[in-house]
Every structure is written in structure tokens, then in C-alpha cells.
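Lecture 7 notes: from sequence to structure.

We start with a single chain of 76 residues. Read the sequence below before looking at the structure.
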Amino acid sequence: MPVSLPSKISAKTSSAQRNVDCITVWAISLGTSATGIAALVFFAGQEPVGAAFVLAAAATMIGIVLRETAHTPDRG
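Now the structure, written as C-alpha cells:
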């Protein structure tokens, strides 16, 4: 039996989905920036402990934000 398709397909994305996408882009950009800063600290400053601190601080910030946004109820 053939199934009739809707005449117009909705291409809207929910605000929750768009919010997750923005947070993902933010996390990737923060991680990339932290990697660059850590490389500068490690190679230019000869400071491996400082480079490790930069990476750990960025990972902690990303983890906290992603954890808090995962527990946010959907408002849609």
C-alpha cells in the first residue's frame, strides 16, 4: 500500500539542537586554541608544566560546560 508523503517538509531545527551544535563548536575552538597556546608555552617558553596546566585548564572548562548543558532540561 503506498504511503502518501507530506506536501511540505519542515526543515526547522529545534533550539535545543542548535544550542548543542553551538556548544560543540565552542568546545572544539577552545580545545584548538588551548593546544596552540600550550605549544607556544612549551616550545617558546621551555615550560612543560605550564603547557600541561593550559591543557588541563581548558579540558576542565570544556568538561564542566558540557556536563552542565547535558543536564539542562529541554525547553522546546
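Residues 20-70 form one domain. Keep this in mind for problem set 3.
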